[in-house]
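Worked example 4.2. Below are the chains of a multi-component assembly; read each line carefully before continuing.
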Amino acid sequence: MTASRRRPRMIRILAALIVLAPLALFGCTLQEFPQSTLHPRADYAGEIQELLESLLFWVAIIFVLVETALIVAVVRFRNRPGLPEPKHVHGHTGLEIAWTIAPAIVLAFIAVPTVVTIFKTQAKAPADALQVRVIGHQWWWEFQYPEQSITTATEMHIPVGRPIAVSLETADVIHAFWFPAMGGKRDVVPSRVNHMWFKADSVGTYMGQCAELCGTSHANMKKLLVVQTPEEFERWVASQQALPVEPESTSMAARGKQVFMDTGCLACHYIEGVAPGVIGPNLNHVGSRRSLAGGLFENTPENMAKWIENPPARKPGAIMPALGLPADQIAALVAYLQSLQ
Amino acid sequence: MTTTTAPVTGVGAAAHADSGLWSWITTVDHKRIGVLYGVTAFIFFLIGGLEAVLIRIQLVRPENTFVSPDVYNQLFTMHGTTMIFLAIMPLSASFFNYLIPLMIGARDVAFPRLNAFSYWVYLLGAIFLNLSFFLGGAPDVGWFGYSNLTSKQFAPGVGVDYWAVGLQILGIASLAAGFNFIVTIINLRAPGMKLMRMPVFVWMTLVTSFLIIFAFPVITVALVFLLFDRMTGTNFFIPAAGADPVLWQHLFWLFGHPEVYILILPAMGIVSDILPTFSKKPLFGYPVVVYSGIFIGFMGWGVWSHHMFSVGLGPVADSFFALTTMLIAIPTGVKIFNWIATMWGGRIDLKSPMLFAVGFIALFIMGGLSGVMHSSPPADLQQTDTYFVVAHIHYVLFGGSIMGIFAGIYYWFPKMTGRMLNERLGQLHFWLTMISMNVTFFPMHFVGLLGMPRRVYTYAPNMGFDQMNFWSTVGVFGIVLSVLVFIWNVLHSRSRGAVAGRDPWGGPTLEWAIPSPPPPHNFATVPTVHSRDPLWEKDGEQIVRTANERRGPIHMPPNSYWPFLGALGMTMLLSGMVYGWWVGIPGLILMLVAFYAWAFEPVH
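Applying the procedure described above to all two chains together yields the following structure tokens:
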């Protein structure tokens, strides 16, 4: 008897858990979960969030109703002594029609806003949008600003409040461009150019990473989005447009530049007026970036030295080879690259 | 019950009773082949499970270094491929084999030797695929193998070759089985068993078989393109030569989505037959349940691009595939309502088969509803390729398919062995599975919505993913424990379980009319059926009597080793694409000899 008295309470606790769990989810912050899809910071992500909430509403109702019906059926009609032989009912046309139409109506409530949101979020970008060309590489992201003639890597800067039109391409295999706080993901597909646009509504730094399996270091293909005030963004543009700093002739950095030109770095990397390479990230202003190696490490001289010493050891599969440079050459290289602010 | 122990004539009669390795290699008895399928598939279920455990150990904490990224990519690729092609599909095939002839009142399947051939091709293909772990590295491009990551340029190793050739080999096994069961179900039903009197499991087998014969040619074409690209330098999927790698995605998912229903419909059939038995009440809305299954199978062909919402196919295509996908929720919901209505007003006996069947419904509701959430493309664009989808597929395939398969094993084990599985261990297995399944997969919904992508071998400590991943790993060990309980139950009960008798559960369908385990010829005399639940009707006694009473000579097909040799030759021929002509040419010769001998083998 105690068992049957305990059961309803268990059901209540379960139901409470089911309802509370999603609420707890919406209660958590972007600081705790920096890549959360539930903390929109752009119009696009906001549209999705609104749709998701209405989806969750219906799904939660159906879940609770149907699971309750299931549990009630099992508990209420459980075999007990003295229960009569069940009547052999074979069906009920009215019920069948009812429970075919009911989900159809609920689905209409989901389908209509879905289609509206699809067309709204895939509309053409406004004409005044800032153009950013995104190119996926195994395993890092390149960002080009054609109107500003800027090329950078791993770190995308945008001004708050202005529409951003992103064109998406890949240099090798399929990757997926994804900043959850801005909106849904979009694949970068060979021999195609994809488009999306969004307008960030708060200043801040947001995380993203590749979302389509792209080989060994898929997990290490991260990126940062720095949303700035228009003034800060203009300053960033100006700093990126400036020519790379020329090191003083006797400095450590000058020695580093020589190492850069002598050891083959220039075959893959680009530094305006110094190196013509296009395979690896553009290093014009690498010293100003917050992170290294596809967002894997904070950009400190120590991390940069470790990275140059043996890239595949720190990012498995990395195309950049370990060049076997002596420590003093690496130190000089780091001094040079860090000076490229 | 009158059991006539009538001697059975025919070339194969003696061999059927044999034991020993040779009798298993040459058997054409659908029941023995069913057991072979079941045991083999369960071993691969354990291998796929082991891969899952290794994956979870790697992810137990951030920046773990338990396995390397390349090994990790191999593990999740092989986990998916193994569970889908080597575990769930053949576990379903095991039920098809063992049960379809028994349920429709037949002596065997329509083509017994082709049936044996299917099994041997499956076994050899499965072994071939897994050899890659030891011979140069397993495939590491995901079970969906998106182009152009699979091209020679980006996947120079042999892993992708093993994967593509392995799937071709397995596809032949599936196709042969698909045709066999269609012909069997259409032609070999007992007199009076009209289509709308077939058990729902037979119906779902028929729908699944049609899905198989239409879906596998699609992936066969895609894999042929891929193998040509890799081995002969064609450019079907090579962007540099102007190809569009999205073609692969269309072909793959045009196969891949029906494949999802190939995995779930048999479990739905199993559950539809278990619920009535343990509710002591016929299935509610039988025709609606059947039509829903057919409708799901049919609609499965019109939804493939919902796997591709992030590709950028445009708002019109996205809307179309969103609406067709939502439409599938209706027949699925209708099935669930009918199942609940079957239990409503019944006298429910919560024995282990019924527990697993109810667990199936409870978990499948969850998986179905998370599916509705990403049927909406904008929402999907946040959820796709995250752990949210990992949670969804495991509620559907573990909570759905695997729970349904366990329900079926508990239900029919007595029929197959003559012994009952231990009920207390069954209950323990169920609750352990139910709890640890949810501990493992429920947190994945949240870690996915909070931004953790799939198929990443590691994550940074500052992302907030630590705790939920920890619990998922804890849960997986609970699942391991539950499977160990099950294995122990099977090993123990098969010789020492309570004797089952002909019909331990009071089931309504024909398989319960004959002894457990059934004799090689199944039915001494094939009874005439007048209703959907023959053993529950007034003439039930009469049917049981007839089924066990020999009235004429029984002819059984002879054993044959040619299916095995044909399968061996064909596997060698195809694996020659990886190993070279010195394996392929002998394989070709062996295959031709075996097929020729098979064709002219006397069967009388």
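Take a moment to check your reading of the output against the notes. Residues 2-121 of chain A form a domain with the Helix Hairpins fold (CATH 1.10.287.90). Chain A has a mean pLDDT of 90.
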